[in-house]
Structure formats: structure tokens, C-alpha cells
Automatic annotation (TrEMBL):
Domain of life, per lineage: Bacteria
PANTHER family on file: ANAEROBIC RIBONUCLEOSIDE-TRIPHOSPHATE REDUCTASE-ACTIVATING PROTEIN, PYRUVATE FORMATE-LYASE-ACTIVATING ENZYME
Gene3D superfamilies with a match to the protein in the record: Aldolase class I (3.20.20.70)
KW S-adenosyl-L-methionine (keyword) present: yes
Keyword set includes Iron: yes
Alphabetical UniProt keywords: 4Fe-4S, Iron, Iron-sulfur, Metal-binding, S-adenosyl-L-methionine
Name used for this protein in its record: Radical SAM protein
Length: 205
């Protein structure tokens, strides 16, 4: 029996209200071959980088955070489906919810012959699927960037997808600034104006 692969984690946020309904933990993974034009996270395209982390330790950290569940983002979660399926299943066993973002269409994911893709789908409560389209900016729905992206309720546990978009800005003890949530480029530019060059790190959708 093979070991579950490590997850290449680019960022872990213990608590956020900008990455799905309620207060959630969020995991951004490193690596995405889709590479949508205009993506806010081009620094997560390359497969190298991130911190290799066991699924078990990620589950423990999500549970310890005391949130309602976890949101999986990237990068592309389904390109690390084996490790994240284990994370999602562990979080669900703890009674928490799982929201997963993907740049792949739902039909493509459902037709995949990869058992790990199927496992991650089966352990996801709410899936947001479809590539980001910068010509179809969505200014009405929360959490998504473009109108082509679908909300797919794979269970009834995260039925409420209403609420405002939020932007969160986190400043570390060393002065590094991290931004997460969704906003258009003009809004982000205005938000980050005047900050020291090189200190801001967006992690949005």
C-alpha cells in the first residue's frame, strides 16, 4: 500500500472570513498547469516551491483552529488530489466542511479516471469550478472571480453562498503584508498603494 503523497503548501491561514461562508481555515497549494490569464496568484503556477506537508498534520491544524471547515485553493487543488483528498476526508470525519476551488470544469473532473480526483470530489461539500476569465469579471457573487465559474453543491452542508466579498490584510511581526480574498486589480492597487515595495503578497482568487 503506497503512502499518501505530501501536499505542497504555499500558504496556510488558520482563520479567515474571506474564503468561503463563515469562518474557515484556508490552504493554498503550490502548482497549477492551467495558468489562467489575469490570475491573482501567478506565483503559485510553478510546481516547485511550497512546503511539503503531511495530510495528517494539515487535518490536525484545521481542527485545532476551531473553524467551521477548510477551503482548498491554489494553485490547483486537483493537481494534488491524492494528498488533498486525505485532508478533505479527515476534515469531514471531524465534522467540519470542505470547500474546494478548481480551475477545471466540473464535467472534466467528473470524467477523470484518476481515483484521487474522484476521492477529493466525494469529500468536498462545495466546489467552485471553472477557469478564471478576465473578460467575464463577476461583481455580484462572493468568492468567485468570473461569471463562468460554477458553485456546485456536492452535499447540502454549505448551501448558503450569499454574502459580501471580503478582502483581508494580514501584517506579520516582521512587517510582511499578505492579502487574501477577491478584488479587481484597481481595488487591489488602491488598497496596496503606499505600502513598502516588495512587502505585499497577494493570495486571492
Amino acid at each position: 500500500m503506497s503512502e499518501t503523497p505530501l501536499v505542497r503548501v504555499a500558504r496556510f491561514l488558520d482563520r479567515t472570513t474571506a474564503e468561503g461562508p463563515g469562518e474557515r481555515s484556508a490552504i493554498w497549494v503550490q502548482g497549477c498547469s492551467i495558468r489562467c490569464a489575469g490570475c491573482f496568484n501567478p506565483h503559485l503556477f510553478g510546481p516547485r516551491g511550497g512546503t511539503p506537508t503531511t495530510p495528517e498534520s494539515l487535518v490536525e491544524r484545521v481542527v485545532a483552529a476551531g473553524t467551521s471547515g477548510v477551503t482548498l485553493l491554489g494553485g490547483e487543488p486537483f493537481e494534488q488530489a491524492a494528498g488533498l483528498a486525505a485532508v478533505a476526508a479527515g476534515v469531514r470525519r471531524a465534522g467540519l466542511t470542505v470547500m474546494t476551488f478548481s480551475g477545471y470544469e466540473y464535467a472534466y473532473l467528473r470524467s477523470s479516471a484518476d481515483e484521487h480526483v474522484a476521492a477529493l470530489l466525494s469529500a468536498t461539500d462545495l466546489l467552485v469550478a471553472g477557469p478564471f476569465r478576465q473578460d467575464l469579471i463577476d461583481r455580484d457573487r462572493p468568492w468567485v472571480g468570473s461569471t463562468n465559474q460554477e458553485f456546485l453543491h456536492l452535499t447540502g452542508r454549505l448551501a448558503d453562498v450569499t454574502g459580501p466579498d471580503r478582502i483581508e490584510v494580514t501584517v506579520s511581526a516582521t512587517g510582511d503584508i499578505a492579502v487574501n480574498g477577491w478584488a479587481d486589480s484597481d481595488t487591489l492597487d488602491a488598497l496596496l498603494a503606499g505600502l513598502p515595495a516588495g512587502r505585499a503578497r497577494p493570495s486571492a482568487r
